Amino acid sequence: AFSDSNLFGDDINERMVRVTKMNLIMHGDGFSGIYNSHGLSIGVSDRLPIKEASISKIFSNPPFAGREEDPSHLSRFETANADDGSVVSLHKTIPFVEMIIKLLEPGGCAALVLPNGIFNSPSKTFRKLRQIIFSETKILAVVGLPHWVFFHTGCDVQGSLLFLKKEKMTSDYSIFMDIAENVGY
After folding, report:
1. Collapsing DSSP states into helix, strand and coil, what is residue 92?
2. Mean pLDDT of the chain
3. CA 103, chain centre distance (Å)
4. Which of 46, 93, 101, 131 has a 20 to 30 Å separation from 10 between CA atoms?
5. Element containing residue 55 per DSSP (H, E)
6. Which residues contact 102 (CB under 8 A, 6 or more apart)?
7. What is the pLDDT of residue 45?
8. Residue 9 in contact with residue 34, Cβ under 8 Å?
9. What is the pLDDT of residue 174?
């Protein structure tokens, strides 16, 4: 099936992986591209067929909460490198966004659901991530989501959609910005 060699998914939650595979089976698609592993191992794990700079389209909803503290994952990310050479823990969203940018092939696009801290937190690690976004990608669009959109999940974090293209920009350019007033489930 098309999905076996062209669509890949990964989740740390084994139940979510089983549900996804079952959904694909019920819809007549293959399911071999769905993996149960730590998402930050994408691009470097021999278990996953995904390598850096090899993906044309990425749709992702990185973790919104918690901190990543595992140095074996963090050592790969510029955002986790402190000025003294040590590795610092990061808000979980940060290494995922950096990894997504690394996974995109030149000209590849990503559509991400992100907490607004990515856009406005004064923290040094968030600022480092924004610099990577600005230097490695063209921001196509930012769409703010209604404040209530994640309430049904028990999450009270304001979020936005970020659309990127892996393309280094050398001059100013326009970015589409808007606010969604309604969201369907």
Report:
1. coil
2. 93
3. 10
4. 131
5. strand 55-60
6. 43, 52, 53
7. 87
8. yes
9. 97
pTM of the model: 0.93
Supply the Cα-derived Rg of the chain in whole angstroms. Answer: 17
Contact present, 27 and 37 (Cβ < 8 Å): no
**Interacting residues of 56 by C-beta distance below 8 A, sequence separation 6+:** 104, 105, 107, 108, 109
The answer on pLDDT for 126 being more than 70 is yes
pLDDT at 31 over 80: no
Compute, in degrees rounded to 10, the torsion defined by CA atoms 128, 131, 132, 136: -170
User: Cβ distance 144 to 108 under 8 Å?
Assistant: no
Question: DSSP state, 109?
Answer: E
> Residue 36: its pLDDT value, please?
93
The residue with greater pLDDT, 157 or 13, is 13
CA 140 to chain CA mean position, Å: 15
Find tokens 């084994």 and name the residue.
Answer: 14
Task: Give φ, ψ of 21 to 5 degrees.
Answer: -60, -45
Q: Is the pLDDT of residue 74 over 80?
A: yes
